[in-house]
């Protein structure tokens, strides 16, 4: 959303109940702009290796979150490097070991 004029977009977004944002980090400017909106914004975390999103983070409104929360059935942990390890049953028994800090 940062490459778009937010003022032109925000009014239209309030007509939507939930917006999923994924694929790139969200700037503080964008988070500040969406905080007062009635539309719920969620940042998603997923990767090609997980075949879908595995975690969500609510960005505004009641229950806004500082951190991502794993979706039901998914477990997340850090390895000795501080990188994310994802266990998603739909991927089998072996966890996905990422290089994401």
Fold and architecture overview:
With 101 residues, this protein is of the alpha+beta class. Helices cover 15% and strands 29% of the residues. The protein is built from two helices and seven strands; from the N terminus they run αβαββββββ. The protein has helices at residues 6-13, 28-34, and strands spanning 18-21, 40-46, 53-58, 69-70, 75-78, 84-87, 96-97. The strands form two sheets. It has a four-stranded mixed β-sheet with strand order 1-2-3-4, with no helix packed on it. Strands 5-6-7 form a three-stranded antiparallel β-sheet, with no helix packed on it. Strand 5 and strand 6 (84-87) form a beta hairpin. The mean pLDDT is 89.
Strand order, sheet with most strands: 1-2-3-4
Low-confidence stretches: none
Number of strands: 7
Relative helix content: 10-25%
Put simply, the count of helices is 2
Major sheet: size, sense and barrel closure?
Answer: 4 strands, mixed
* Distance, first to last CA: 24 Å
Would you tell me the overall average pLDDT?
89
Structural Rg:
15 Å
Could you say which overall geometry the principal axes of the C-alpha atoms support?
Answer: elongated
- The structure class reads alpha+beta
Helix-strand sequence: HEHEEEEEE
Strand content: 25-35%
